[in-house]
Amino acid sequence: MGSASDDGRDRDAEGRARSARPRDGLGRPLPYGADGVERQPEGVVRTPEETVDEAQALLETGKPFHAHEVFEDAWKSGPEEERALWRGLAQLAVGLTHAARGNLTGGARLLRRGAGAVEEWGAQAGQERPYGMELPELIAWARELAGVVERDEAAVDAGAWAPQLRGSKA
Q: What is the pLDDT of residues 70-100, one digit of tens each?
């Protein structure tokens, strides 16, 4: 994957700091040598449809941290006019990650921030169904989950709470 640098930090092939420690399904670092979940490669350029498909598969298997990385690739490589959409979706995935890890305040905050960003993008773009995604359902899901996390004051099961990006009718 990479090597340690003079400062003792793991680095990737381009020399960027990137931990080589294995990670669990929620992206938490595990001890070196432990069996972890395969990491998402960074900087992959996908079509928007491929992004939605891959993120959905990761969400359904309880890996919202990894779905966030897929959305982040779209945000960084996609057209300027869609960056706010993909950034908002990445925030939703990170919000679910935090809620599943037990960071309830951060999870609820990111879910609401992501819902607001997605809602704002949809209103400005005049789109409720970009790439088949059902933005109103996704926004409602995020706000509902934020409320549940705050009310129950307990971590959630990421797989059980995985959103359906293309809606419940998909």
A: 999 999 998 999 999 999 999 999 999 999 9
Count of all residues that appear for the chain in the document: 170
pLDDT digit string, tens, across residues 4-40? 445 555 554 555 545 677 787 787 787 888 777 777 6
- pTM score of the predicted model: 0.83
Residues 2, 72: Cα–Cα separation, whole Å = 21
Backbone angles phi, psi at 144, to 5 degrees: -65, -45
Report the alpha-carbon distance of residue 155 to residue 106 in Å, rounded: 12
Q: Are 104 and 131 spatial neighbours (Cβ–Cβ below 8 Å)?
A: no
What is the H or E stretch that residue 135 is in?
Answer: helix 135-152
Structure tokens at 96: 């679910």
Q: What is the phi/psi pair of residue 3, to 5°?
A: -145, 165
